[in-house]
Amino acid sequence: MGGARVVRRATIRGVEDPAVAGLAAVLAPEGLALLDALPPYEEAAGLALGARLRAEGHDPALVAGALTQSRLRARAVAKFGPFADDMLFTAAGLEQATRLEVAARHARRFAAADVRRVADLGCGIGGDALALAGLGLGVLAVDRDEPTAAVAAANLRRFPAAAVRCEDVVATDLTGVDGVWLDPARRDAAGRRVLDPRRASPPLSFAVDLAERLPVGVKTAPGIDHDLVPTGPGGAWECQWTSVDGDVVEAALWSGPLARPGVRRSAVVVRGGAAAVVDDAADPFAATAPPVGPVGGFLYEPDGAVVRAGLVGAVVAALDGRLVDPSIAYVTADRHLELPSATGYVVDEVMPFGLKPLRARLRERGVGRLTIKKRGTAVEPEELRRRLRLEGPEEAVLVLTRVAGRQSALICRALPRPIAV
């Protein structure tokens, strides 16, 4: 294994960093017992609880570590739901971890491709590895950071078939593995985000080389340039952008049997736990520009994953609609159709943008509560809200954008958003 350490138990050696010392103390059986016995985390009660635990004779490092884990568990509920209560975290690992519902979609890709043992390279705290193991797949989880690998081992402790190694993923022996999930490090030495997958660690070229012999999935930043999606080897690749409750959380590259035939770009829109998929097979404008025309009775804002994937044309086609401007991702139509991939609004009025006439019109309509959305304009919504000085009982949505090249204001009303199925 090229010097790899097999993490059979969740332990950390040679601790000097106080934060790591606290984590090491929690990883011991007595540490886990203390953590599980803590009351639900409350920020205001943290100092008093820590003082009481130390007065009861608990080691200060253990107390600090247990309280840190309690706080991280509370934060992790947003990503892992009730499973967070049985997990351990590092602060950086939680920030970078794949959300549970997204990791489950990754795992189902591998299962559907009949991959039975997956190497999770750059496993972090083990979010994706947990989803894979939860489907009954064999897992080899690898991370070069020892505290992180120890946390992954703790989180995978209920899956005896899952193995964890602490080593550089580039050196990992993949014997017995028939699929790879790669989550490269996407920050440079100064901690800045790296958007170009060619500069990640390991770089995209490492995944492309792996794809010559194994099906590969790669997590990457949502801002990936479409031109960087590999075209081979291992067959055609699919890039899929995913949003969760309106937040674009990732793009993932899939090779070989993990990619869907004939699909190059796709988007998954997850809302309320349900998901809808849009792909370029459903976009008749994938090779041409969608039509542009006047604003109709309805305006639609495509989900961010759809925009990132370059699939606004699929929304245009579904609505039999048109863009309001050739460079703006707002779609207008003359009918209302519920689309999980877009948020719809009724258009009450369209006017050229100008502060004084806009203020006067909104006051005439009695608007006091205003949601401001914008694309293709330099106007700052909060500054505009302050200058409008609105009062009144009515509510409206103000969309600031270009219409046929002119800065415009669209006064709208929100439509109920459908649940994706």
- Global outline: globular
Number of strands: 17
What is the typical, i.e. mean, pLDDT? 92
Class computed from helices, strands and strand pairing: alpha/beta
Which CATH architecture of the largest domain would you pick?
3-Layer(aba) Sandwich
Main sheet: which strands, in order across? 1-4-3-2-5-6-8-7-9-10
Please work out how many helical segments DSSP would assign. 13
Radius of gyration: 25 Å
The tally of structural domains comes to 3
CATH topology of the largest domain: Rossmann fold
Query: What series of H and E elements makes up the topology?
Result: EHHHHHHEHEHEEHEEEEEEHHEEEHEHEE
Secondary structure elements and their pairing?
Elements: E1 5-6, H1 18-27, H2 29-37, H3 46-55, H4 60-80, H5 91-96, H6 100-112, E2 117-121, H7 127-134, E3 138-143, H8 146-155, E4 162-166, E5 179-182, H9 204-210, E6 216-220, E7 238-244, E8 247-254, E9 265-271, E10 274-279, E11 298-302, H10 304-308, H11 312-319, E12 322-323, E13 331-333, E14 342-352, H12 355-364, E15 367-374, H13 381-388, E16 394-403, E17 406-414
Parallel strand pairs: 2-3, 2-5, 3-4, 5-6, 7-9, 15-16
Antiparallel strand pairs: 1-4, 6-8, 7-8, 9-10, 11-13, 11-14, 12-13, 14-17, 16-17
